[in-house]
User: What shape does this take?
Amino acid sequence: MSVETELDVDDVTRRMSGALNALKSEFSGLRTGRARASLLDPINVDAYGSKVPISQLASISVPEPRMITVQVWDVTQVQLVEKAIRNSNLGLNPSVDGQLLRIPIPELNEERRREMVKIAAKYAEHARVAVRNVRRDGMEQLKKLEKDGHIGEDEHKAWSVEVQQLTDTTIGEIDDLLSTKDIEITQV
Assistant: This one.
């Protein structure tokens, strides 16, 4: 077992990027009134004895600005895909035509828009908390390295500044994503 003698900045960066990517994924599942194939990404179907993403059971396309179509490959899975979409809490109501599901994307009313903005803010705050937790872990690692004599006070300060800059940059990106998503949701 090797003893770490410096902060693993790549690990800190990777973990902060992971929080940012998780936020992007959550944002892609928020309905904004426009049809996007990624809207169905968070939906899993109970098929073949496990939870399977819709994209592994069907082709998803957007033939019109307010319509998503899902072409299910296996006829035995059509009902399961339809049920998963209906139960997804996205407010979608697919209609079945053989193996093709047509999903009209309704306009968002003002109340639903406000609700979506709150949900987006909640997702962003979870991402900020995750980034701050990574920062805390990095700072604790620095304290331990200094206490154990692996780095000096000056190195500790330099690494601390770098971790804080990474934190500030990542939180800025989270805030930018939230701002963009808010505009996307509230556009009428």
The beta strands are 44-47, 50-53, 58-64, 67-72, 95-97, 100-104.
